[in-house]
Amino acid sequence: SAINFLERLCLTWMFFFMMCVAERTYKQVGLKLFSHITSARKARKYEIPHFRLKKVENIKIWLSLRSYLKRRGPQRSVDVVVSSVFLLALSIAFICCAQVLKGHKTFLSAAYNWEFLMWEAALLLFLLRLASLGSETNKKYSNISILLTEQINLYLKMEKKPNKKEQLSLVNNVLKLSTKLLK
């Protein structure tokens, strides 16, 4: 029974460690780094590439990167972990329901049922944390304040450099279309 306890303890630790690493990766890459690529100060701090949205090519890159991170970034690896956690929680819930239907008066007298309930509570807490992180990430990806700030900067540049007005107005039109696309 001691070996069985140690095996369960090690497997539990590995499983929750994997969930914590997935959550940390999701937070770091999905929430922080994406919003820092258009800020010079934050990009320098995190040692990531920086570019302003003052050229059509940069806007294309920004939209492509946004799309790529939304589809394949840290969400891909986290999706696998979240799916497995959800399926495990669902399986444990079915087992607990079957145990309750089998004998509801003796359900809490078995130690393994207590263990199932603890696992279920821990998994549901983790799923709630990831759901709130997903909500924050969706807010970040649908935020258009970066584009509006860049539009204001372009208007100011048009006034300072009238000889580049045609090129800057093209970029401004692309920014307007991008804003509409994100809305």
UniProtKB/TrEMBL annotation:
The chain crosses the membrane at residues 80-101, 113-131. It comes from the Eukaryota. It comes from Leiothrix lutea. The keyword Kinase does not apply. InterPro entries: PHTF1/2 (IPR039775). Residues 1-22 form the signal peptide. Keywords: Membrane, Signal, Transmembrane, Transmembrane helix. One of its GO terms (cellular component) is endoplasmic reticulum. The keyword tRNA processing does not apply. This is PHTF1 factor.
